[in-house]
Amino acid sequence: MQRRRVTLILSIGVTAALGLAACDNGSAGEETYELRFNHVLSESEPFHEGFLSWAEAVEERTDGGLTIEVYPSAELGVEEDIIEQIQDGAAIGQNTDAARLGQYVEDVAVVNGPYFVESLDEVEALRESETMQGYLDELEDQGLKVISFNWVQTHRHFFTNQEINTPEDLNGLRVRTPGAPIWQESIRALGASPVAMDFGEVYPGLQQGAIDGAELVYANIPAGSLHEVVSHATETGHILLVNFEVVSAEWFNSLPDEYQEILVEEADRAGRETSQVMEEEIAEIKDELVDQGMTINEDPDVEAFREAGEAAYDALGLTEVRDQIWSEIGKE
């Protein structure tokens, strides 16, 4: 697989693990810093281009003092393992979600709950939430520095081989979802039987009948050729998939203040731009899927799904947390 490299990793050993390399950057004694950034998506997805844009901007603004090498398709390893390495201080970054971060600060998982946020504006408003900022501080205390959380992969919908209009239509269907509790309880609340499965296993899982469907964003379908094994899309929009860019707090704090600001500013900038690109590409993706024979239900009973989703918050004790954050961002 071809991989675009933003820079060559020059250092090994303990200093590389901490992201502090004494490389010759044109000035004697000047330190350079390097970050290897891992994500599970393919090179064809907009997020990969967004991460490359972030890396290029950081390198340019720091005159090569801070560089990022982007690894798609989980080339550095499994997401959960990478996060553990990040906690230990490794100079690695990971694109992740609130569900996985909920394993460290339980209540932050609420961000992945059904219909928690429903627009890019609401995601931006989360920055003003005192409760959310408190969760980010708790994560940092555990070694995980969230440098941006405005990377949004659009709404998740159900993709199956039969028509779906209400939660009752999902009864008995085994639907793939990630394994974290908020994902599992959300899909169970919406009517299906959740099956924890890595994204790379979805195609064979559908092909072999191990699962009856999956809940994903539109961009995942052509990227994984899933239109070959599912025939129906149901636009429930049950989760707006907010992503978090995480690095080691120890590594981040080793950076000069200027580099910290640049890393955060460019991550936020690239996140906003990439999220908008993904929104704009949905219409084209849908047209392609219809041309390939997929049936798209644009008008299921979303209100019924919204009401059903309440059970997920109740099951995980997150209703009060959700309501508090909604109050802080002006959502009713």
Automatic annotation (TrEMBL):
Keyword Signal: yes
Signal peptide from the UniProt entry: 1-21
Gene Ontology BP term (one): transmembrane transport
Superkingdom field: Bacteria
Keyword Transmembrane: no
Pfam family, one: DctP
Keywords: Signal
InterPro entries in the record: DctP_fam, TRAP_DctP, TRAP_DctP_sf
Transmembrane annotation, as ranges: none
GO CC annotation terms, alphabetical: outer membrane-bounded periplasmic space
PANTHER family in alphabetical order: C4-DICARBOXYLATE-BINDING PROTEIN (PTHR33376:SF3), PTHR33376
UniProt-recorded name of the protein: C4-dicarboxylate ABC transporter
The species this protein was found in: Phytoactinopolyspora halophila
